[in-house]
Design brief:
The chain has 365 residues and is α/β, with parallel strands linked by helices. It is built from twelve helices and ten strands. The radius of gyration is 19 Å and the shape is globular. It binds 1,3-dihydroxyacetonephosphate.
Length: 365
């Protein structure tokens, strides 16, 4: 057996166990892996300077939220956080240990951002970070990370996006990444995000997303990715943010389940959606409707969440740089809401939220 196949063989059981732990019913992931630039934009909104100490304070808030593990099975971290100690108030120990002590599995963003795609259409990108990825994955594993994330970005436009080149390149990058990190013991979160930018309808998104997911799973198969030890993080099947006839949550649920049923193998243990610019409450309502639609057809996967903006928006706002307990209460409220929505049991409006639209054109993470 070639050395790389042996490396994957060695981790097979552990990968499946990690993926199953992240697919725990009623839970999802907290995507707290904003790059230093992106968290800076969030801090700017509350008038807080983007310093290492402020980032430490905010991520310490997340790691010490009591009861979070009831609804959050894993947390995606940015590299700085994985190697950072918590505040003195939180005990000063590594942040990664605080999450582990709660029973929350730490993960790590491993892509290094997107760049313009030569040969693609205007605005199209490819995702960087493959060079040296194996060595980085081994270092992250040694520090306690057990899963990884790689975000590839596609867009829909009347100019013909996504191009075939963009779909194939991004699918292949996801597959190379997934195979590489599995050889180092990390469960890959495969994230082919389709941006909400545009005025297209939901049927257009559904047909593009079917094409994208079909291409992604073909690339994963060619690369020998172990599906039982992997997770999918797609966008929900939504209309463009500027669509004149926006679908309701039930339509989103039905289209999303149809798209996934046509393209995602049943061997994948969980599908954990990104929130993509939906407001906090809308993200929960759509996830709830997706689970109700999935129950009706007996879909094979756990359908949970891996939200960034839709879990943290009101948390950051209420924290405002100093109010720990208000920030933690807001985080816990959205975690509870989405935990319930992952079972199709969310009562609309039953948890506090901020109804601001979190949509940002051409969003980067
Ligand atoms: P949003 O939920 O804010 O879209 O982000 C999730 C994420 O991790 C994107 O990569």
């Amino acid at each position: 057996m070639p050395a790389d196949a042996m490396a994957l063989e060695e981790f097979r059981e552990q990968l499946a166990a990690t993926a199953a732990a992240l697919a725990e019913p009623g839970t999802g992931l907290l995507a707290a892996d904003e790059s230093t630039g992106t968290i800076g934009k969030r801090f700017e909104a509350i008038g807080l300077e983007n310093t290492e100490d402020h980032r430490r304070a905010y991520r310490s808030l997340l790691a010490t939220t009591a009861g979070l593990a009831e609804h959050i099975s894993g947390v995606i971290l940015f590299e700085e956080t994985l190697f950072q100690d918590s505040t003195e108030q939180a005990g000063g120990q590594p942040l990664v240990e605080l999450f582990q002590q709660q029973g929350i599995v730490p993960g790590i963003k491993v892509d290094q951002g997107v760049e313009p795609l030569a040969g693609g259409l205007a605005g199209e990108t490819w995702c960087t970070g493959l060079k040296g990825l194996g060595e980085r994955a081994a270092r992250y594993y040694a520090r306690g990370a057990r899963f990884a994330k790689w975000r590839a970005v596609l867009q829909i436009s009347s100019a013909g996006c996504p191009s075939e080149l963009a779909v194939r390149e991004n699918a292949w990058g996801l597959a190379r990444y997934a195979r590489t990190v599995q050889e180092h013991g990390l469960v890959p979160i495969v994230e082919p995000e389709i941006l909400m930018d545009g005025d297209h309808d939901i049927a257009t998104t559904a047909s593009v997303q079917e094409w994208v997911l079909r291409t992604v799973y073909e690339a994963l198969a060619v690369n020998g990715v172990f599906l039982e030890g992997s997770l999918l993080k797609p966008s929900m099947t939504l209309a463009g943010a500027a669509c004149p006839q926006p679908p309701n949550a039930q339509e989103v649920g039905a289209f999303t389940v149809r798209t996934l049923s046509r393209t995602v193998p049943a061997a994948v243990p969980a599908i954990l959606f990104l929130s993509g610019g939906l407001s906090e409450e809308d993200a929960s309502l759509c996830l709830n409707a997706i689970n109700q639609a999935a129950d009706a057809v007996g879909a094979p996967w756990h359908l949970g969440f891996s939200f960034g903006r839709a879990l943290q928006h009101s948390c950051i706002k209420h924290w405002a740089g100093h109010d720990l307990s208000a920030g933690q209460a807001a985080l816990l409220a959205r975690a509870r809401a989405n935990g319930a929505a992952s079972r199709g049991d969310y009562e609309p409006g039953s948890e506090p939220s901020d109804d601001a639209s979190l949509f940002v054109a051409n969003y980067s993470y």
